[in-house]
Write a structure and sequence with these properties.
Number of strands of chain A: 16
Oligomer: homodimer
Largest interface: A-B, 62 and 61 residues
Radius of gyration of chain A: 22 Å
Structural class of chain A: alpha+beta
Largest sheet of chain A: 7 strands, mixed
Shape of chain A: globular
Number of helices of chain A: 11
Number of domains of chain A: 2
CATH architecture of the largest domain in chain A: 4-Layer Sandwich
Order of helices and strands of chain A: EEEHEHEHHEEEHEEHEHHHEEEHEEH
Strand content of chain A: 25-35%
Mean pLDDT of chain A: 92
CATH superfamily of the largest domain in chain A: L-amino peptidase D-ALA esterase/amidase
Distance between the termini of chain A: 38 Å
Helix content of chain A: 25-40%
Chain lengths: 399, 399
Amino acid sequence: MAKKIHNIQGIKLGSASSNTRYGTREDSLVITLPKEAKLSGKFTTNKLKAAPVTEAIQKLSLLEKGSKVLLINAGNANAANGPKGIRDVKKYCKEIASVLNLNQQNIIPFSTGVIGEALPVENYLKAFRKALTRLDNKNWKKAASAILTTDTKPKIISKEIKIGKTSYLITSFAKGSGMIRPDFATLLSFVFLDAKLSQSSLNKIHTEALKVSFEAITIDGDTSPNDSSILVATGNKEKTVKPGSLAEKKLSQAVIQTFKELSELLVEDAEGATKKIIIKVRKAKSIEQAKSVAFTVAESPLVKTAMFGSDANWGRILSAVGRDETVEDINEIKIQLNGQPLVKKGFIDPKYSEKSASRVMKKREIIIEIILGLGKYEFEVMTSDLSEDYVLINSDYRS
Amino acid sequence: MAKKIHNIQGIKLGSASSNTRYGTREDSLVITLPKEAKLSGKFTTNKLKAAPVTEAIQKLSLLEKGSKVLLINAGNANAANGPKGIRDVKKYCKEIASVLNLNQQNIIPFSTGVIGEALPVENYLKAFRKALTRLDNKNWKKAASAILTTDTKPKIISKEIKIGKTSYLITSFAKGSGMIRPDFATLLSFVFLDAKLSQSSLNKIHTEALKVSFEAITIDGDTSPNDSSILVATGNKEKTVKPGSLAEKKLSQAVIQTFKELSELLVEDAEGATKKIIIKVRKAKSIEQAKSVAFTVAESPLVKTAMFGSDANWGRILSAVGRDETVEDINEIKIQLNGQPLVKKGFIDPKYSEKSASRVMKKREIIIEIILGLGKYEFEVMTSDLSEDYVLINSDYRS
């Protein structure tokens, strides 16, 4: 059932092929934003930052007035390429700025693909030029497809929210699988909102949204040099949404929900994944503890392989919690799997039934609830299982 | 080529089968130690501690005079079994103490096997009784085999060291694969040394040895509730090795070497491993940084799958270093793989040759050198690659 994709006034998208890694598949995307648009950008914490990330961070901090353009290429990450990487990205931004008669400060680059291979800059430049001739505000599906690398499908989320008498639209797309592949560099996300917001509102909403979405998923614990998340408010409304207002709150909720749904699409399309696993840690003594435990369990290869094998292996889950550095004792711990009791007070729950546990393990969505009994904080992480296909995909990758 | 296994005066070993998980395979081991023996024990840091670990820690802190006995069973970890686990272990220790007319404080238990299944205590007790009738000081191979779980072979290291006119013997055996399988619980190691040492010398040597052996290997980053390392000095010499003496230093070096060789045997036998990978981090600003970087790289699924696929994927190694929390910059970093240049000053080394790198990647032992250029400290970690077989073994495990 195809869901409606809302076009966002003022946002135009065009794509083309660079005829490099993917042959004639479109892999180069241009997005133009209106003059009134405000942008919030958040980037990888990896100290290995791709050249376009370094450029984008610098440019976003000093945006000039006027239209803004996002340039995205897939197939080459332009990461770990040293000074040449920077020269290449500056070159194509400058050329596109000159074509559009814009300040090059407002041309913001993003890349995803193989690390450490020189960017075929002329090819991508040619593709960006062609993409400019195809700009249209309906091109969401083409745009979502043009940024893909090893993803098996485009990931688009679009919503309409009514607040009072005003209707707001959100359309967004993303690629990658969280932190799964720093080599085939990873997460790019673009979310567009047709509202007028202050820069500080926008940043605040973005930060809140990331906490429960892209920062709450993991595939294999690796982070890429290219991870970028962009939230755009087009400014295309008469009234500014006031900071602290009910409207801001509702809009914020809708944006957060959009980010969560994009995250979910990423986890579902993670390499080799056969299951979606949600780890809910409750009653922790702090948010940090809840988060730490959730990630320790989510990234345990032994838990992930057990999930792949549909084994309700509570010993592995309990043991992963037990080795988390923030946990001092597991005497009050309770663990449930899709509602089935596994562990109570640190050992097997008397109500545990191998049969019932095995039955729920066969589902494609597994919820592991870990109730620490140490405090009142909680955190939730989404991940995938670890299958033979993950190993196959990642060991065969460059051969 | 079979290496000589030295018998250690005063150490007797006997094994038998409990007729439980492994059928008639011997899975129960008794080791008796002389009255003069001193013991040093180090245990898992997991908060989920198996019942025998809790008991062993308590007993070692209050050893009584007289002979000591080690009881080891494989096939059942007696972990996460709650109060019954403790009752069971106390029961068989008491019974064996009574057979031998010893204080039960001196009967020290160890277990390895499945977590969370009740211990078939009568079966193991019967096996321990039978093992007592088979005590002999030559039974090293049988002993090393009796403690195995999914290991594919016994792991024994034996040495003779001459210091001045005195000859010292070390014989040792271990099981498990570092931290690979908290469910089929993991590392047990027993090292016996025919020397007279003070308790503080013994503890110091043990701590030093662990730092560069079992604490410097990783398979998948998981730690077990049962990990136990025991170092025994039999006391079977006239003179005490003086703390601070040259003899103590030489003996210490031989013990450390023994621990390192045991570790290497564990990594070589890691589940599904096809390669041994040594990660040497140099020029770090602290030991902690060197260790952190080494483990981040060693535990990156992307690095491990690339190694399995014989792909000299320097981008994944560099990216793993870049995401390590202790690293602020990678501008001076240099990476080599079996001596081949990969990365220099944060990006691809101009001398990099895909052909040469591919050639060395086919070897079964890979040395990754990461020179951070931030200080003068170093740390070395040994690990294995991540293969499809690892996933197969760990997803099929309980089915």
